[in-house]
Amino acid sequence: MNTVFKPRMNNSAPQSKSRHWLPAIVLMSAFLQSAYAGTPPPAEQMAVSTAAVDSAARAGATELAPTEMAIARDKLAQAKAAMTDGKDQRALMLAEAAQVDALLAEAKARNIQAGKAATELRESNRVLRQEIERGAK
C-alpha cells in the first residue's frame, strides 16, 4: 500500500477566532439588556405626546383628520397601559409614535383649513370683480 502523507489541516484557528468573539457578544448582550431594563418611565414623553394630541384636537383634527387622530389616541392609550405594566421601553416607543401621529393629524387639519380659506378668498375675489365690472358699465 502506498500511502501518501497528508498533513492534518489545523481547523482550530477559525474556532479560536469564534471563541474570541464570544465574550464580546455576551458582554454586548448584557449591556443591551441592562440598557432596556434600566429605561426610566417615559413620563416626560407621555406629557409631550398628550400635549400633541390635545393640540391636534384644538386644531380641529378630530373632525378634519379623524383617522389620524384615532390612531394617535389609540397609541397614547397603549403607551399609558404599557407604562402602567412597567414596560417602559414599549411605552416610550408608543408615546413617540402617538406624538408623530398627532402632529400629522394637526398638519392635515391645518392644511384642510387653509384650503377652505383659500377657496373662500377666491370666491370673495370673484364676487368683488363682478361688482367692479358692473360698476364700470
- Outline: elongated
Helix and strand element order: HHHHH
Number of strands: 0
The largest β sheet comes out as: none
Please tell me the overall pLDDT. 85
Beta-strand level of the residues, as a percent range? under 5%
Helix content: over 70%
Structural class: mainly alpha
Number of helices: 5
N-to-C CA distance: 123 Å
Low-confidence stretches at least 5 residues in length (pLDDT < 50)?
none
Q: Mind telling me the C-alpha Rg?
A: 31 Å
Q: What are the main properties of this structure?
A:
mainly alpha; 83% helix; 137 residues
Description:
With 137 residues, the chain is mainly α. It has a domain at 40-112. 83% of the residues lie in helices and 0% in strands. The chain is built from five helices and no strands. It has helices spanning 12-37, 43-58, 61-64, 66-84, 88-136. It starts with 11 loop residues before the first helix and ends with a helix. The model has no long low-confidence stretch (mean pLDDT 85).
Summarize the structure.
The chain is built from five helices and no strands. It has helices spanning 12-37, 43-58, 61-64, 66-84, 88-136. The protein is elongated.
Secondary structure elements and pairings:
Layout: H1 12-37, H2 43-58, H3 61-64, H4 66-84, H5 88-136
